[in-house]
Amino acid sequence: MASAAHGHTPAAWTGVVISFVGFCVAGVAMIMPNVVLTIAGLAVVLIGGVVGKAMSMAGMGKQPSKNFAPAHSEERAAVTAA
C-alpha cells in the first residue's frame, strides 16, 4: 500500500489539517455553548475539504501511475488491433 501514496500528498495534508482545526474549534465551542463559534468551526471543516480538492485539482494531489495504463486505453488498443 505504501506505493499507492494514499493520502501522502500536500493536498491531503493541507485539507486534513484545516479540517482538524475546524473540528477542534467546533468541539470547544460546543462545550462553551457558543452557537456562532460552532457554526464557524463547521464552516472551517467544509473549507478544508474544498481547499484539499482544489489543491488536488491544481496538481498537488496523487499523480497517475506511470506503470499502469487506464482500461479505456487498453480497450482502444484491442479494438484498433482487431
Task: Give an account of the 3D structure.
With 82 residues, the protein is an all-alpha fold. It has a domain of 55 residues. It has three helices and no strands. The longest helix has 26 residues. Keywords: Membrane, Transmembrane, Transmembrane helix.
Fill in the keyword field for this structure.
82 residues; mainly alpha; 3 helices; 0% strand; membrane; transmembrane helix; transmembrane
DSSP summary, beta strand count: 0
Instruction: List the helices and strands in order.
Output: HHH
The percent of residues in helical segments reads over 70%
The average pLDDT is 83
Alpha-beta content class: mainly alpha
Radius of gyration: 20 Å
What is the count of DSSP helices, taking H or I runs of 4+ residues? 3
The residue ranges in which pLDDT falls below 50 over 5 or more consecutive positions are: none
Largest sheet: none
The end-to-end distance, rounded to whole angstroms, is: 36 Å
Keywords: Membrane, Transmembrane, Transmembrane helix
Biased composition (Basic and acidic residues): 72-82
Transmembrane segments: 12-31, 37-56
Region (Disordered): 62-82
